[in-house]
Design a protein that fits this description.
This protein is of the alpha/beta class and about 140 residues long. The chain has 3 helices and 7 strands, in the order E-H-E-H-E-E-H-E-E-E. Strand 4, helix 3 and strand 5 form a beta-alpha-beta unit. The protein has a 7-stranded mixed beta sheet, covered by helices on one side. The chain has a single domain, classed as 3-Layer(aba) Sandwich (Rossmann fold), CATH 3.40.50. Helices cover about 20% and strands about 25% of the residues. The relative contact order is 0.26.
Length: about 140
């Protein structure tokens, strides 16, 4: 388990860039945390490491956005899915076992269908430490 603290959205993004150095095609990161906890800022940082993070938007309605770069990044937002069956999510295998990196916001909603090698990252706020404070734990 690794624990990080950030105090601004840019620090959270920088952490994404830093951790992306250790990612290879086939990596799957399950991003867990409430609204506004920094998940999308983190994704922007990871995409920065392989391409242009400025193009990152949360794919709440499309479910997945694809970002081209030196390594493709597949950005999921499964907020609208409520514990679907494996059969309902079989289309995700095309991404999970492809040549890119998968970043999945609200991943606990589909935890039953995530591959075993998925790395869980938990984002949380602590208003007592500041409005933009985030604790980020890799499990």
């Amino acid at each position: 388990m690794e624990r990080f603290e950030t105090s601004t959205a840019e620090e959270t993004r920088a952490l994404g860039r830093q951790l992306a150095k250790d990612l290879a095609p086939g990596a799957i990161l399950a991003l867990v945390g409430d609204l506004g906890c920094g998940k999308t800022a983190f994704v922007k940082g990871v995409v920065d490491a392989f391409g242009d993070g400025e193009e990152v938007t949360s794919p709440t309605f499309t479910l997945v956005n694809e970002y081209a770069g030196t390594v493709p990044v597949y950005h999921f937002d499964v907020y609208r899915l409520d514990h679907p069956s494996v059969e309902e999510c079989d289309w995700m295998d095309d991404y999970f076992f492809a040549d890119g990196i998968c970043l999945i916001e609200w991943a606990d909603n589909i935890r039953e269908v995530l591959p075993e090698h998925t790395v869980r990252i938990v984002f949380s706020k602590n208003p007592q430490k500041g409005e933009d404070y985030r604790e980020i734990i890799l499990c």
